[in-house]
Specification:
Oligomer: single chain
InterPro entries: Lysozyme-like_dom_sf, Peptidoglycan-bd_3, TtsA-like_GH18_dom
CATH architecture: Up-down Bundle
CATH superfamily: Chitosanase, subunit A, domain 1
Radius of gyration: 17 Å
Number of strands: 4
Structural class: mainly alpha
CATH class: Mainly Alpha
Shape: globular
Number of helices: 7
Largest sheet: 2 strands, antiparallel
Number of domains: 1
Strand content: under 5%
Length: about 180
């Protein structure tokens, strides 16, 4: 059965709250409240040959941005890339859910992150289509979900995905502990 929307504790509509594009009322997730989590998970400069991301700085990879001098990337430059290329979650009401999906998009790509969100929604009883697109149906289902149950399910599915990667690519097993910590956070 579909979970009822979890009440938002101490929520009082303010001038900052508004209706989402799909009609829900509430204060929407903000990039500024999510970016520190991403930067904490991604860290600084890394060039580990076993890392599927390759050369990265603040989580921004040379594979994704071949023309960028990754070693010289500033924190502000990384934040701008995250805002422009990764933050698509401003229609989600739950800040923790938006941050978690943003974190997955950074680490696994948008398509995989959105598929995990959609599978998690299905697993808690919302029959959304799993297509990897963060469209109105997925946003509406997300905003209508029990956020705590949704986060638990996302965490499980993230952990499963990380285990699949480690099984498929044994050289990545050294990252598994931190990936599991990331999934659980």
């Amino acid at each position: 059965a579909k979970s009822a929307k979890k009440p938002m504790p101490n929520f009082t509509p303010t001038s900052k709250s508004r209706k989402t594009a799909t009609g829900e009322e509430g204060e929407l997730a903000k990039f500024e409240l999510s970016i520190d989590t991403i930067l904490k998970h991604e860290g600084g400069y890394v060039n580990d040959p076993d890392d599927p991301g390759g050369e990265t700085n603040f989580g921004i990879s040379k594979r994704q941005y071949p023309a960028l001098d990754i070693g010289s990337l500033t924190l502000e430059g990384a934040k701008e890339i995250y805002r422009e290329d990764y933050w698509n979650y401003g229609e989600i009401i739950s800040q923790p859910v938006a941050t978690k999906v943003f974190d997955m998009a950074v680490n696994m790509g948008h398509d995989r992150a959105h598929r995990i969100l959609q599978e998690a929604l299905q697993n808690i009883g919302d029959p959304v289509r799993i297509d990897g697109v963060l469209g109105p149906q997925t946003i509406k289902a997300t905003n209508g979900s029990d956020y705590e149950e949704l986060l638990k399910e996302i965490r499980v599915l993230m952990a499963v995905r990380y285990a699949q990667i480690a099984l498929a690519r044994p050289t990545t097993r050294k990252f598994l502990y931190n990936w599991m910590r990331r999934a659980a956070s």
